[in-house]
C-alpha cells in the first residue's frame, strides 16, 4: 500500500526511532479509564526535542504522548511487555520507566542508574515482563518492567573489536504450550568479529521454578562459509519473527537464510541462498551515512528498505531515492516496490529522498510495516498478490513471443525456470534457453487448459461439467505429487507424504466461478467450486464473488471449504459468515449439509443441527485474522448475536478447562479451536460491544459467569503450578522451591 505519515519531527526536530508492541486492557481501565486504552498495533515514536508519542498504526491516531521535561533520550523508547509500561535510555546513563496510562510528563518516571555502564541497546518483547539492557562492553542486565529491581546479569562474550549489527529477543516455545507469556528467551545477536567474519551470539535467559531469573552461558558460532558469501561483507540482517532462524543480506546482494535447530542450541546451518536483483545503490560502506535495514515478513518474502535505484516505468528514468522493496525468496525477483515520499509544506520536509532511514518494523500479524527516518515515521499496509510470469522472471515479457497465453499454468513456468536455468534465477538477463523453455511450458499449459475449456463450453449438463473439472484437478494433483517426490528424493525414494497445492490458471478458475454464480445454473456447479477451493486454487482477492455467493445461497458445504482452505479472507467476510451461522442459517441448508456428511461418512453417527452450527463456528474461529480489524467488523453484530456467540465461547472455555465436562459432537477430521483462539475471540467481542454489554443489564449474568469461569481456572492453575518446582527437583535434580507444598516431605536418615 501507499505510505502515509504517522509522525513527524517538525522544523528543527529529529526522529530518534520507533518501537512496536501490544497493550493489554486491565480491569481498572475497563471500569473507567477507557480513554487510555492503547491497541496492540501501537508504535512508540521518540522525537527530539519534543517527547514520546504512541500512535495506532491502523488508524494513524496519536493515543498518548509525554513531554521530556529535561530528559535527554539516548535511544528510542521501547514498549515493555504487553504494554503496561514504556522504558527509555537517557544520556545521563539512566534507564527510566513509566506507566502507559500516565498522563503527565516523564519527570516522575522510575529511574535506574547504570553507574559506569554505557548503554548500547535496550530490548523488550511483548511476552517478557522485563527489560534487557546491553552495555557497550556487551554485558547483559535484566531489569524488572518498572526498573526498580535488577533480576539477573551476565556477559555476552563478544570480543573487543567485534561489531553487532542486529539484536533480537526470541521466546522459547517448549512443546505445544501456547501462552501470552514465556518463561525462557534467547537473545540472538548477529554481527562480525575482529577478522570481519559473520558470527552469531546467543544467550538463553528466563525465570526458574523458584521465581529467580537466570542467564545461561552465551554461545558463539562463525557462520558456515559459502561460495556466494565468501569475501563479501555483511550488509543487513534480521531475525525471523517468533523463531531463532535469521537471514543475512551481503554487499554482493546475496541473501542467505540460516537455521538454528534445537531452540538455538545447535550450530547454525545454511538452508537457502539467493542473489537478489535491483539493489544498486544500497549502502555497503561504513562511511556511507545512508542507513539500510531488512525486515523478514514470512518464509516467502523479505522486505528491504534503504536508498536504492527506483526502477523507472516506460519513459521515466530510474532515480536514487528511499525505497521499500519486496522480494520473493524462492526466485530472488522483485514483487513490489514503493518510494517513500509524501506531500509536505515545510522546507526541511520537501526532499524525502535525502532522509536517512533508521529502522523498519513489522507488526505481529505481518500486515503493517512502519519505516522510521530521521524526520518522520511512515506506515504502509502489506498484502500478498498472485504470482505472475513477469514477477517470476523479474522482467517484462513480450507475450507475443510466447504464444498469446489465454491461460497458462504457473507451475510449469516455475519448474522450467528452476530446472533449466537455476543458477541464473534473479539475474537481470534471462537466457534464451530459459525463455524457450518458458515458451514451451506456456504452449503446453495453453493446449491442455484450452482443451478443458473447449470441453466445458460444449457441455450443458452441470453434472458433466463438475466431473470434467474434478478429473482435471485429480490429474494436476497426481502430477504435482510426483514432481514433489522427485524434488525431495531425486527419484531415489518414496519421500514423505505431505499436502501438495495444485496450481491452475486464474483464467480457468474465473470461468468456473462466473459460471457457478450465474442465475441459470445457480447451485448446480457448487461441487465444482468446492473442488477448486479444496485444491487451493481460490483466493478472495482474485475471485471476490465466491464468498458472497456462498453466504447468499447458504451453501454450508461451500462455506466450510472456503473457511478451511482460503487463507486471505477479510475480516468483513469472516463476520458475515459468523452472522449467517449464528442467526440467518436456513433449515434446508442444515439438512443439505447433514445429508452430504451422512453420505460421505455412513459409518459415523448422523450430525444434528446444533453440531453443524458448532462445527461452522469452530471453522470461523480458526481462520487467520487481525484482532483490531476484527473488532471493528464485530461492531456490526447486534447485542443478541454477540450474546449468542459469547455463550458458545463460554462452552468452549468450559470444554478446555481442567475439570472439563462439556463434550461436543463434531464431523470427522474437525478440530476445536485452541484455548488461546477462544480467549482472543472472547476479548474481541467484549472490546467491540463494551458499551452495549455494560448498559444492557440482561448481559450482566453472562459476564459474571465468564468472570467466575476465568477466576476458577486461574485459581486452579495457581494451585497446580506450585507442583512444578517439586517435579523439577525430582526429575532434574534442581533446587527445592522456595515455598514447598504443605504435604511435601523430606526424609532424613540418621546413622
Folded structure, characterized:
By secondary structure, the chain is an alpha+beta fold. The chain is built from 18 helices and 29 strands. Strands 14, 15, 16, 17 and 18 form a five-stranded antiparallel sheet that branches. A four-stranded antiparallel sheet has the order 1-29-28-27, with no helix packed on it. It has a four-stranded antiparallel sheet with strand order 2-3-4-5, with no helix packed on it. The protein starts with a strand and ends in a 19-residue tail after the last helix. The model is unreliable at 24-37, 174-181, 284-290, 399-430 and 486-498 (pLDDT under 50).
Q: What are the main properties of this structure?
A:
18 helices, alpha+beta, 751 residues, 29 strands, single chain
Query: Which structural class do you get from the secondary structure elements?
Result: alpha+beta
Overall average pLDDT:
75
Return residue spans where pLDDT drops below 50 for at least 5 consecutive residues. Answer: 24-37, 174-181, 284-290, 399-430, 486-498
> How large is the count of helical segments?
18
Give the biggest beta sheet: 5 strands, antiparallel
Rg is: 29 Å
> What's the shape?
globular
Task: State the separation between the terminal residues, measured CA to CA.
Answer: 78 Å
Helix content: 25-40%
The tally of strands reads 29
Strand content: 15-25%
Amino acid at each position: 500500500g501507499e505510505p502515509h505519515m504517522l509522525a513527524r519531527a517538525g522544523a528543527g526536530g529529529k526522529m530518534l526511532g520507533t518501537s512496536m508492541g501490544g497493550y493489554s486492557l486491565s480491569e481498572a481501565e475497563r471500569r473507567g479509564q477507557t480513554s487510555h486504552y492503547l491497541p496492540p498495533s501501537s508504535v512508540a515514536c521518540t522525537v527530539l526535542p519534543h517527547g514520546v508519542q504512541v500512535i495506532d498504526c491502523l488508524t494513524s491516531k496519536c493515543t498518548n504522548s509525554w513531554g521530556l521535561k529535561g530528559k535527554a533520550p539516548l535511544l528510542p523508547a521501547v514498549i515493555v511487555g504487553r504494554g503496561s509500561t514504556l522504558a527509555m535510555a537517557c544520556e545521563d546513563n539512566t534507564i527510566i520507566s513509566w506507566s502507559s496510562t500516565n498522563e503527565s510528563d516523564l519527570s516522575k518516571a522510575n529511574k535506574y542508574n547504570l553507574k559506569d555502564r554505557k548503554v548500547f541497546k535496550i530490548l523488550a518483547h511483548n511476552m517478557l515482563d522485563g527489560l534487557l539492557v546491553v552495555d557497550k562492553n556487551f554485558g547483559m542486565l535484566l531489569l524488572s518492567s518498572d526498573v526498580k529491581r535488577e533480576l539477573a546479569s551476565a556477559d555476552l562474550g563478544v570480543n573487543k573489536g567485534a561489531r553487532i549489527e542486529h539484536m533480537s529477543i526470541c521466546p522459547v516455545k517448549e512443546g505445544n504450550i501456547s501462552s501470552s507469556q514465556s518463561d525462557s528467551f534467547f537473545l540472538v545477536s548477529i554481527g562480525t568479529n575482529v577478522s570481519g567474519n559473520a558470527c552469531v551470539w546467543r544467550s538463553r535467559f528466563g525465570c526458574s521454578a523458584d521465581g529467580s531469573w537466570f542467564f545461561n552461558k552465551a554461545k558463539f558460532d562463525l557462520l558456515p562459509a559459502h561460495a556466494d558469501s565468501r569475501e563479501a561483507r555483511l550488509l543487513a540482517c534480521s531475525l525471523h519473527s517468533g523463531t531463532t532462524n535469521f537471514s543475512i543480506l551481503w554487499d554482493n546482494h546475496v541473501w542467505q537464510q540460516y537455521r538454528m535447530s534445537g531452540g538455538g542450541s545447535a550450530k547454525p546451518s545454511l538452508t537457502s541462498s539467493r542473489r537478489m536483483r535491483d539493489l544498486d545503490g544500497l549502502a555497503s560502506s561504513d562511511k556511507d551515512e545512508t542507513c539500510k535495514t531488512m525486515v523478514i515478513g514470512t518464509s516467502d518474502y523479505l522486505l528491504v528498505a534503504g536508498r536504492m535505484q527506483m526502477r523507472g516505468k516506460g519513459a521515466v528514468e530510474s532515480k536514487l531515492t528511499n525505497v521499500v522493496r519486496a522480494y520473493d525468496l524462492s526466485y530472488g525477483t522483485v514483487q513490489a516496490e514503493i518510494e517513500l515520499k509524501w506531500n509536505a509544506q515545510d522546507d526541511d520536509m520537501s526532499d524525502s529522498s535525502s532522509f536517512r532511514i533508521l529502522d523498519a518494523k513489522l507488526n505481529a500479524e505481518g500486515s503493517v510495516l512502519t519505516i522510521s527516518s530521521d524526520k518522520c515515521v511512515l506506515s504502509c499496509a502489506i498484502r500478498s498478490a498472485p504470482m505472475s510470469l513477469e514477477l517470476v522472471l523479474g522482467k517484462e515479457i513480450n507475450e507475443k513471443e510466447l504464444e498469446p497465453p489465454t491461460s497458462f499454468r504457473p507451475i510449469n513456468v516455475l519448474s522450467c525456470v528452476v530446472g533449466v536455468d537455476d543458477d541464473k534465477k534473479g539475474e537481470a538477463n534471462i537466457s534464451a534457453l530459459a525463455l524457450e523453455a518458458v515458451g514451451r511450458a506456456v504452449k503446453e499449459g495453453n493446449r491442455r487448459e484450452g482443451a478443458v475449456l473447449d470441453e466445458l463450453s460444449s457441455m450443458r449438463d452441470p453434472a458433466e461439467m463438475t466431473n470434467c473439472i474434478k478429473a482435471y484437478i485429480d490429474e494436476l494433483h497426481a502430477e504435482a505429487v510426483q514432481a514433489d517426490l522427485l524434488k525431495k528424493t531425486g527419484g531415489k525414494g518414496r519421500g514423505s507424504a505431505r499436502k501438495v497445492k495444485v496450481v491452475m490458471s486464474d483464467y480457468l478458475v474465473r470461468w468456473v466461478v462466473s459460471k457457478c454464480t450465474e442465475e441459470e445454473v445457480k447451485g448446480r456447479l457448487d461441487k465444482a467450486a468446492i473442488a477448486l477451493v479444496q485444491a487451493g486454487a481460490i483466493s478472495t482477492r482474485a475471485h471476490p464473488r465466491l464468498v458472497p455467493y456462498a453466504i447468499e445461497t447458504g451453501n454450508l458445504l461451500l462455506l466450510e471449504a472456503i473457511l478451511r482452505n482460503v487463507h486471505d479472507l477479510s475480516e468483513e467476510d469472516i463476520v458475515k459468515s459468523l452472522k449467517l451461522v449464528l442467526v440467518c442459517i436456513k433449515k434446508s441448508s442444515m439438512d443439505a449439509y447433514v445429508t452430504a456428511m451422512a453420505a460421505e461418512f455412513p459409518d459415523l453417527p448422523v450430525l444434528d443441527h446444533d453440531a453443524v452450527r458448532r462445527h461452522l463456528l469452530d471453522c470461523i474461529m480458526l481462520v487467520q485474522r487481525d484482532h483490531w480489524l476484527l473488532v471493528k467488523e464485530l461492531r456490526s453484530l447486534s447485542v443478541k448475536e454477540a450474546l449468542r456467540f459469547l455463550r458458545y465461547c463460554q462452552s468452549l472455555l468450559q470444554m478446555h478447562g481442567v475439570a472439563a465436562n462439556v463434550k461436543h459432537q463434531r464431523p470427522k477430521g474437525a478440530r476445536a479451536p485452541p484455548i488461546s483462539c477462544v480467549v482472543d475471540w472472547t476479548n474481541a467481542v467484549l472490546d467491540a460491544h463494551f458499551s452495549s454489554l455494560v448498559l444492557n443489564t440482561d448481559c450482566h449474568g453472562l459476564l459474571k459467569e465468564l468472570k467466575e469461569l476465568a477466576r476458577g481456572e486461574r485459581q486452579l492453575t495457581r494451585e497446580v503450578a506450585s507442583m512444578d518446582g517439586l517435579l523439577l527437583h525430582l526429575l532434574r535434580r534442581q533446587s527445592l522451591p522456595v515455598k514447598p507444598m504443605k504435604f511435601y516431605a523430606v526424609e532424613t536418615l540418621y546413622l
